[in-house]
Amino acid sequence: MVLIVGVIVLIIVNVILLSITSKRQSTFGLGRVGLSFVAPFQELITRSVRFSRGVWQHYFFLVSVAHENETLKNSINQFIEKDNERHEIELANTRLRNLLNFQKTPTNPVVAAEVIGKDPSGWFKTVIIDKGRSDGLQKGLPVVLPTGIAGQVIEVSGHYAKVMLIIDRNSAVDALVQRSRARGIIKGALADECRFEYVLRKHDVQMGDTVIASGLDGVYPKGLRIGRISELNERSSNIFYEITVTPFVDYEKLEEVLVILHPKQQPFESQQ
Hints:
The protein is of the alpha+beta class. It has two helices and twelve strands, in the order ααββββββββββββ.
């Protein structure tokens, strides 16, 4: 504000002095003296005007740059969001292709479902899927992935179902070691792992062995993979091994599953 008032005053003074020095009756000497007096004021006014113009131009330039910068940021954010959506679609397509490829192998019809919820407590390892009774689901059906067994349907409503994962402490799967056929029961344990119980020490069991479903529990079809033996205590005085099995399914990344509608039961002769 002070700068503007100063510029106005200088302009007024400059106009008055110019009008005085420009009169015809002024002598040459008086004109020269007036010029010497007026010129510094004109220079000051000119520089002030240029400075003010430069400040305004710089301000408007910064405003324009800031607007362009904001526009570019919005464009970049939209691009990143679209790229992220595209990446998520690609990942979902990959998972669905794996499910579809696996779907061709079972002899029983299956239903693909999406995991839409998890039990928030640490006591139960259950998930909610977006398929229910209207899709043919019923209590007791096995839930699987291409990598292995996920769990079992324990509750069903019209359009939703609850699945108990095999890492839940209440879960039990009749299983056997694929290599040696040693048999036992897979039960849920802590840290997303399972215990392989009731495996007799006389049987051949080794670290890294693959454990599969035996099919004898009437829930999971025979041969479905469960996990790999990650811990084996052979020094225990117990008649059974102490075995830890790490499941093939990554339950922290569980997003889509397959529900086998009518698992094929093992013939009576094979259960002897």
